[in-house]
Amino acid sequence: MRTPSPISAATPSAGTVRRVSWGAIFAGAVVTIALMILFTTFGIGIGAGMFDPQYEANPASGIGIGSAIYLVVTQLIALAAGGYVAGRLAGIPREISAVLHGASVWAVTTVFVAWAAISGGSALFGAATSAIGNTAGAVGNAGEAIVPDDLSLPNPSNLAGSLSLDALPEELRTRLEEEGITEQNIRQEATAAFRDVFSQEEQQAAVSEARETLSDILQSPADAGEEIGAFFDRLVQGPDAIISEEDRQQALDQMEQRLGITPEEAESLVQSVQDGVQNAVAEARDAVEAARQQAVEAAQAASAAVSKAALLLSLVSVLGLAAAAGGAYAGRPSRLMADYV
């Protein structure tokens, strides 16, 4: 009959074995974070030393991809080392316990890295999350391009001041020439007739309305075309039009009185100005529609970039978990002893 070998006093009994060693986990996490900082600063030093704009045509080419590869590889190495430390210090030879200690190191490190990135430490810890944040910002910024900065709406008095006799019907042109009314006379009187129709303040208010109306275009792109059309329709017809029916009648009366022409002739002159307004509004509509399309395309590209970056970050995180767990598995002791390290 075999007698059992005595248990060393240094060996804990089965009932006193700890299921988790937080000391080992935190030690592994500290080692991981320290190595991440070391690798990052070392990489910055090497990368900055290789950057030579004096002798290279495109010195920044390849830096982005190379930095990403270096970052991923060094993070995996750091997590594997931290997991090894945790698995070794835990002193538990069971495989599952070692793997779970390594996973805990990964979890603690991930939470710390996320906190550091949010707190402003993204230069060392949040490279991937910063990329996602910057790309996501592009989605919101794309909405600001809906209305071009140089968008302007037509001013009837300016259009009236550029009236040309050649643009008028031949009969009207002949009649005006017979009465001694020159092109300069027409421009002066038409400008005066339309001077207060659409003031600078009204134009600025209309442009502000355009920006407010179209600012939510990315939130409801399906209705964007209708919103654009409705806004520009209001500029050419209805009570809020650039030349409303009341404005048109006042301009007709003034043109008749100032030039001494018939209502039909005044109608032709006013219609020429109104046609110019409608053409200018149509050009503004096309400019806004083009900007809308560009903004939507930019937002779609930015969203795709965010999705890609997030998926890559998730993949790297899973690889980091595997590295930490594998390091802990490799570092587990072969026997359970309190003084075994």
Sum up the structure in keywords.
341 residues; mainly alpha; rod-shaped; disordered N terminus
Explain this structure to me?
The protein has helices at 22-50, 63-90, 95-118, 127-142, 156-160, 170-178, 183-193, 200-214, 224-236, 245-259, 263-331. Helix content is 69%, strand content 0%. The longest helix has 69 residues, at 263-331. By secondary structure, it is an all-alpha fold.
Question: Layout of SSEs?
Answer:
Layout: H1 22-50, H2 63-90, H3 95-118, H4 127-142, H5 156-160, H6 170-178, H7 183-193, H8 200-214, H9 224-236, H10 245-259, H11 263-331
Short account of what is shown:
The chain has 341 residues and is mostly helical. It contains 11 helices and no strands. Mean pLDDT is 76; it is low at 1-15.
Separation of termini? 34 Å
pLDDT < 50 runs, ≥5 residues:
1-15
Give the percentage of residues in beta strands.
Answer: under 5%
The helix content, as a percent range, equals 55-70%
Radius of gyration, in angstroms, nearest whole number: 38 Å
Structure annotation, total helices: 11
Order of helices and strands: HHHHHHHHHHH
